[in-house]
Predict the structure.
Amino acid sequence: MKIYDTHTAPTPRRVRIFLAEKGIDMEYVQVDLQKGENISPDMRLKNPIGKVPILELDDGTCISESVAICRYFEALHPEPPLMGTTALEQAQIEMWQRQVEFALFMQVGMCFQHTTGYFKDRMTPVPEYGEVAGINASKYLNVLEKRLKDNEFIANNSFSIADITALCAIDFARVVKIKIKDDQVNLQRWYNAVSARPSASA
Amino acid sequence: MKIYDTHTAPTPRRVRIFLAEKGIDMEYVQVDLQKGENISPDMRLKNPIGKVPILELDDGTCISESVAICRYFEALHPEPPLMGTTALEQAQIEMWQRQVEFALFMQVGMCFQHTTGYFKDRMTPVPEYGEVAGINASKYLNVLEKRLKDNEFIANNSFSIADITALCAIDFARVVKIKIKDDQVNLQRWYNAVSARPSASA
């Protein structure tokens, strides 16, 4: 099996960190997003919406969507659990993973795509919306700061996929000049801890 | 336990349909989004980002995010499975559920929020972006039409959460005048089938 990956993009990084935490080796095939390799006819057969990452199994079955790929490996390699064990843990981790994804990760992505025009050959940038998305992302950092005041990690007491999504979002946010603020000391403490894990360099 | 719900909104409907398919009875408490009841200080304690649905357990623990609530009940009541049983099924259903959510459900939602200004007291509508989102949603109906040519349901051979997300998106899309096109006969066949299930009226 192999994963179609783009080393510089924030979404595939989520899967790389997830697999590194699980200790799973993987073959990665690099796809150049700027050249549009991801939207070639061949890649559209693997994922009709033309996005990476894509996991290709040995029989040719393809699974796209970073969290779906993580779900596959969580089921096959439950240890260490990154998506929860009990029903309540699973739900709480999914709640935080989704909130971080929608309110931070995607807002950073929309800010990038709509203010820079990086993908203007294949989408319609609306800079005014990009600015709004950036403000939304900044505001959500306040929610995380509050959450991390009393919690070591975002979703519960152990590292989870919610932390991975937040780390990838915050690192990528530098591209659009969104950073942890000086007074967000709990968020900074969390950021330092998750960045120091070996998986962060995957 | 109870769920804070808004009967007219597309997101909480996903949970109602999911629970109806599982045969789970639930107490629903109505929250008026237009009056801003969802962003009151009390509701912010239950969900810091002020969105419904929210599942409140008897001990006061709150789980927000529709798919996280569904995940909780999938773990506690596995039959009938709506999120997959094997690792591959779980991944494929999550893949389709996410693609339908991002490329259709959310695009319809952004089109509604940004073109109508319905929530302009609490967000900054960018009408030009709303138009783009509506076009994105319409385009994704073509992906579903192609998918449903050879598949009875969206993710695999049985009804899943991906079908629920798509049904709620397509029904809500009428508000912004996005509809299944006359030549999308497979999508229409699927729509008629899932709309006829008793759960659709939940």
